[in-house]
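Sorry to interrupt, but I need a hand with the structure work. Can you supply me with one protein entry, sequence and fold together? No commentary is needed, just the two lines. Leave the record below and I will have a look.
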Amino acid sequence: MSIPPIAQNKTPYLSVRQFVAISWKYKWLILITSAIFAVASVFIALSMPNKYESKVVLSPSEEQQGGGLSALANQFGSLASLTGINLKGKGTDTTNLALEILKSKQFLMAFIERHQLKVPVMAAKSWDIASGKLVLNEKIYDEGSSTWVRKVDFPKKPEPSLLETYKTFREILTIKRDVKADIVTITMEFYSPVLVQQWLNALVIELNDYMREIELKRSRSSIEYLRGQIETTDVAELKNVFFQLVQEQIKKSMLAEVRKEYVFTIIDPAIVAEEKSGPSRAIICIVITLLGGILSLFGAHLHHFIVSTRSTPK
């Protein structure tokens, strides 16, 4: 196929006919390069380890804080305001607070230390289905001597810090809240379907426990303060307010003591995944092969342009 000459002007444009002709001229280069990229994409896709996703669906538990306090606010709000107590103020959104705590460094770093997750999170490279064991990267962690051997630049050390582990752990943890449906979905993706299921369920349990402890401390502190106010005030109406507030705090404390799912009720617990969630090897192969074809086309046309420029008389 002959290649039509490009118009000799300051801004020459390549017509569709010329593009096809040049591509046909270099067809073997394009085909071979695309084939090399296709073969390479297969090796790349197969070398990538499987990852498994586990998901837990939660519903915020019914908050018992509003009813009694609202009634007290309507009845004794003006009297309570004399002592500086605001019964009508907006309470903290417990669900949002719990989700922020779940993302926090303090909570997750303590969780990582408590469950000894530094090695699996930072040194894992795949999951052996046959043995049911996590395969560690020997360039990062020597399992035989239980020593970190990764090579890093200063100020980092061979053993990852808790902050490094936290950042990696946050990358595999996804938290989404559907405000309209009032549903919270927490997902984790990792090499091991067993470990990720265990971690996710443990996270929810410990988050509920953590929030319950916060509420217990808050209620006990409030009760102590209110009892002190009862002893010091001589106004009967205010004493009545304080007594009812103490009752509300005792109810909240009792509720926190007995309710295991204090903040979140588990609608659908995390289970061990049977099918991988990634990587999508077919898409990886297609993308890399297309990239090879595009690069070979660009290279062919660039080569033709350079050769044509050199052969054109000045």
About this structure: Confidence is low (pLDDT under 50) at residues 6-11, 64-70, 79-86, 88-92.
